Task: structure prediction
Amino acid sequence: MAKEPRSLHGKVVAITGGARGIGKATAKALAREGATIAIGDLDRELAEKTASELGPEAIGLGLDVTERESFANFLDQVTERLGSLDVLINNAGIMPIGPFLEEDDATARRQIDINLHGLIYGMKLALPGMLERGSGHVINLASQAGKAGFPGGATYSGTKHAVVGLSEAVRAELRDTGVEISVVMPAVVNTELGSGLPENRAVKKLEPEEVADEIVRALQFPKFDVWVPRNTVALYKVLQLLPRGTREAFARFIKADKVLAEPDRAARAKYEDRAARSEPGLEPEKVAAEDKKEPAAEEDKKESPVA
Result:
């Protein structure tokens, strides 16, 4: 007998970075399933606009995932206005790319703060309530860069490897609690984040709706590993049986090593500029100034929740 999908009707779902791209597509897909959506985004106006497109019950709120207090306030408002949180989708993330040795420290910190610390905050804030009720689901957006290292995106790959490992560990800790964890690993997606990136010979560029559909499916039929497209997991498993040199040669053959290393810079310029301003208070000039402080002051800076 075929397994019946879990109903998402009436479920309260919070989506970080939900005003555009994969987050927006996921919000629309879940709204069609009858879920009640809360969109959190650094761009509050865009979050409100996106929410207005989903129906009268959806809400859009400002959210800076790098600040624990901001995340806590976001989830508090979701609970107050919509009810107990059933699903948290940690979607917010950035992908500035370029050679590792040319990456400034502000860019590296920004990626770690948003892609990893933001997700950690969300889980630590949302999971206690889910555990108390004995139900809930956290979806963490990683990437297929979380399963391999891609030239041109070293720090990004590192953050997504961390997302996969963190999700695996938390899932093990929550075994038999009734709370589910899923990690989503898409290939390159046709969003602003993926702008200017070439396709490789093995995997075509995805549409955000394709990722959204797999997220919906993971909520209806809970599973941990969510590969998008699904057939890429078979390729990954086969490659893991081969020696490293062979795997790397295959990556060069399908030009997977060029996807992040050789983008169309002009096509990415708008996104790269926005990504550079995606964490308030951590502009490159500020970090450069902080790095010039005396050692004693440097120790004080380590106490900052952002540093």
User: Anything to note?
Assistant: Confidence is low (pLDDT under 50) at residues 287-307. The chain has one domain: 12-301. Residues 12-301 form a domain with the Rossmann fold fold (CATH 3.40.50.720).
